[in-house]
Design brief:
Layout lengths: L1 H6 L4 E6 L3 H20 L5 E7 L5 E2 L8 E5 L3 H11 L4 E5 L11 E5 L9 E4 L8 H10 L1 H5 L5 E6 L6 E2 L2 H16 L3 E6 L5 H11 L5 E4 L7 H7 L2 E5 L3 H8 L5 E4 L2 E2 L4 H11 L2 E3 L14 H26 L1
Parallel strand pairs: 1-2, 1-4, 4-5, 5-6, 6-7, 8-10, 8-12, 10-11, 12-13, 13-15
Antiparallel strand pairs: 2-3, 9-14
Helix pairs in contact: 2-11, 4-8, 9-10
Length: about 325
């Protein structure tokens, strides 16, 4: 069946989301991993973005109808049911838990901490992401001058914000500022980025404390995002504990990852934290800086391999029917 699909015209994959980076990148990361694995089998695949806007309108890609449909986020779920009626021979995959709409998908890639048990569901540590050696190399090359200007060793600091379970309170802001100053006192250069969820008060404090420091690169949100360059150029990666996507992305680099505490209760995400610690990627930040090694977390590549196998198995009867005709 691999040969049958490889000999057909290049398949088309639609990545479907509401366009938010943290949501879309999960589906896009899985699509890119599928694309890379198909390329290794001498089969090309094109990727197009479908974006569901807040008013319900949908911007569809212009690359043609999909052979593979990968969605993530609540906005993608109702669209899957509509598209299944339109694209009868398409393989439909979903990242995360589609919450009762299980029959609309051929394959569901669900975080293990959700404990989803379905015949068409496969569990993975965290969610898919875009991290790859090629992407990290590209990110470092794009910002090599800025990275090289910072004396080593370097730490990337990825700061999130309020979530359903966590709060970045003034007390936590005080803690973060103090910990960053401690790292500077140890001659560790810092590459700091905050998310859209980071409170403005903390953003202002970060600017006041570090914007002019010669060992700090503080990304203020203006211009091209150096996120992948930060991951590539870091010797350690610090991430606030509520940022599950960034914790998993950091763990895909093979570099030591420290979780920075927030106020709140982790709930089911405690299982993700435990999985990353058990894997050997992440440790809680307790003030002692260490170096350790582990095999980069490759759950996205594993999920892509499972998807390809299921997709090919689903496509086999159709392809054989066509050959018999």
């Amino acid at each position: 069946m691999v040969e049958t699909l490889a000999q057909s015209p290049a398949p088309i994959c639609w990545v479907v989301s509401d366009g938010r980076r943290g949501i879309e990148n999960q589906a896009l990361g899985l699509a890119e991993a599928v694309q890379a694995q198909l390329a290794a089998r001498e089969s090309a695949m094109r990727i197009g973005r479908a974006v569901v806007h807040k008013d319900g309108s949908v911007a569809l890609p212009d690359c043609g109808p999909p052979d593979l449909w990968i969605g993530c986020g609540r906005a993608a779920i109702p669209l899957a049911a509509r598209h299944r009626r339109t694209f009868a021979n398409c393989f439909f995959a979903y990242v995360q838990d589609p919450r009762s709409h299980y029959g609309d998908f051929d394959l569901i890639l669900a975080p293990a901490h959700d404990r989803l048990t379905r015949p068409n569901a496969v569990s993975m540590i965290g969610s898919p992401n875009r991290i790859s050696d090629a992407l990290l190399d590209e990110g470092r090359a794009a910002f090599s001058a800025q990275i090289d200007a910072l004396p080593g060793p370097r730490a990337a600091v990825l700061i999130g914000g309020d979530s359903k379970r966590f709060r970045l309170t003034p007390r936590i802001a005080d803690y973060l500022i103090a910990r960053l100053q401690d790292l500077l006192a140890r001659d560790i250069s810092l590459m700091i980025t905050a998310s859209r969820r980071t409170p403005k008060a903390l953003r202002d404090r970060l600017t006041e404390a570090f914007a002019s420091h010669d060992r700090v690169w503080l990304f203020d949100g203006e211009g091209e995002n150096p996120y992948f360059a930060f991951l590539a150029g870091a010797d350690w990666i610090f991430v606030t504990e509520e940022s599950t996507n960034m914790l998993v992305e950091a763990s895909a680099t093979g570099k030591p990852v420290y979780a920075l505490p927030m106020e709140g209760s982790a709930g089911k995400f405690a299982r993700l934290h435990a999985a990353l610690e058990g894997y050997g990627a992440m440790r809680p930040w307790l003030g002692k800086l260490a170096r350790w090694t582990y095999t980069p977390l490759a759950e996205t590549q594993r999920a892509a391999s499972v998807l390809i196998d299921r997709w090919y198995a689903e496509a086999a009867p159709t392809a054989l029917d066509g050959e018999a005709a």
